[in-house]
Amino acid sequence: MPSSPDTASLPAADARVLRPVEGLVNFRDLGGRRRRDGTLTPHGVFFRSETVDLIRPRGWDTLHALGVRTVVDLRQPPERARDTAARPDWLTTVPVDLDGLAENPEFWEGYWNNGLMGTPLYYLPHLTRLPDRMGAVLQALADAPPGGVLFHCMAGRDRTGMTAMVLLAAVDAEPEEIREDYFETVRNADAFAAATGRPNPEAESERLCAGQGTSMDGAFRAAADGFSLDRLFDDAGLPEAVRTGIRTWRGAVPSTP
User: Fold this and answer.
1) Quick one: which of 27, 243, 53, 19 has its CA closest to 141?
2) Half-sphere exposure of 141 toward its Cβ, with a 13 Å CA cutoff?
3) I need a surface site. Which of 17, 50, 81, 87 has the fewest CB within 10 A?
4) DSSP per-residue string spanning 201-229
5) What does the domain layout of the chain look like in residue ranges?
6) Measured torsion, CA atoms of residues 162, 163, 165, 171, in degrees rounded to the nearest 10
7) Contacts of 156 (CB under 8 A, 6+ apart)
8) What is the edge-to-edge ordering of all strands in the sheet holding 28-29?
9) Which residues share a beta bridge with 139?
10) Among 140, 44, 160, which Cα is nearest to 92's?
11) Cβ atoms within 10 Å of 55's Cβ, excluding its own
12) How far, in Å, are 75, 84, 97, 154, 168 from residue 78 at the CA level?
């Protein structure tokens, strides 16, 4: 597996957004989250954000300085086709369609047209019924070239949030820390809406969850508590090297017996 970048010069462990990335509002490092053993998740390994097509030139300079060398794009092909901005030649981009909408219309019938795809209500069913989709993402994250890996969707909320949930669970992050990572994006919805000219979806998402007898918080907790990493690995048929790469965050976390 590729080695993780040198993190000795990165900011203190409680810094979520290490430096502003020009063009992004939902960018952050997954490092600095408390694990059950009292340690913190390492900085400089995995980053998350909204679509990188929004990044301005100086933003790419910041990402390079942070050690990012690979982008894993979780969007559907039609979404990627709308990109217009150039990317630096030092960057490797790996497209992985996490949704699988075209290939799995029967699954999405229950979530797409009713708005539930914008809530955590679909996370656990997606991981359970379409494990190959997340499996492909995990393979791309584990097998990326040396350096930090930034993964993103459009808003950096649901596809990115589900991926972050799995990655944080893989290194035994505290459940409340996993939840807080997700809700940082939810709380930032006004800023994202202002930056992109899109409506803030959070009130509607809460209404939809309430219609299902829960809340955004309850839906996310149910997903985070309900999925099994070992089952996901098995159902996705991931090789041992990928499983180790995810459990150790590309070698940045000591492996356990």
Assistant:
1) 243
2) 32
3) 81
4) -HHHHHHHHHHTTS-HHHHHHHHHHH--H
5) 28-247
6) 170
7) 26, 27, 48, 49, 50, 51, 185, 192
8) 28-29, 46-49, 148-152, 68-73, 92-95
9) none
10) 140
11) 25
12) 8, 13, 10, 12, 29
β-bridge mates for residue 70, sequence order: 92, 149
User: Would you write out the chain's pLDDT as a tens digit for each of its 257 residues?
Assistant: 444 333 333 334 344 555 589 999 999 999 999 999 999 999 999 999 999 999 999 999 999 999 999 999 999 999 999 999 999 999 999 999 999 999 999 999 999 999 999 999 999 999 999 999 999 999 999 999 999 999 999 999 999 999 999 999 999 999 999 999 999 999 999 999 999 999 999 999 999 999 999 999 999 999 999 999 999 999 999 999 999 999 999 999 987 65
**28-247, what's its fold?**
Protein-Tyrosine Phosphatase; Chain A (3.90.190)
